[in-house]
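Q: Could you fold this chain for me?
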Amino acid sequence: MYTVIVIDDSSSMRRILRDIINSIDDFQVIDEAVDAFDAREKIKLHEPDLVTIDINMPKMDGVTFLRNLMRLHPMPAVVISGEGARGNEIFDDGAVGFIVKPSNDES
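A: Sure. Below is the predicted structure, expressed as structure tokens.
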């Protein structure tokens, strides 16, 4: 079983991601974080196999958090954001995947 922490400031997006990830065989969301500082503590506590990271978060943006994570505690990270233009940038920072969130007018 691969363990996942979902990092997103939107409760509805965390719920959607949790439901999607938990529906995949061998993957389980073990915790959720609302920002980078919350995520840091939960990563230390649970040591997940994978994290999902939103780019636009309060206190610290997801790209800065990704850079810090890869420097201090490297692990597979999938960035999930509405900012499709930043997709290539995050691979240079260590992400293993990028998923574009639908815009507000998309379902």
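A (continued): The CA atoms of residues 82 and 101 lie 5 Å apart.
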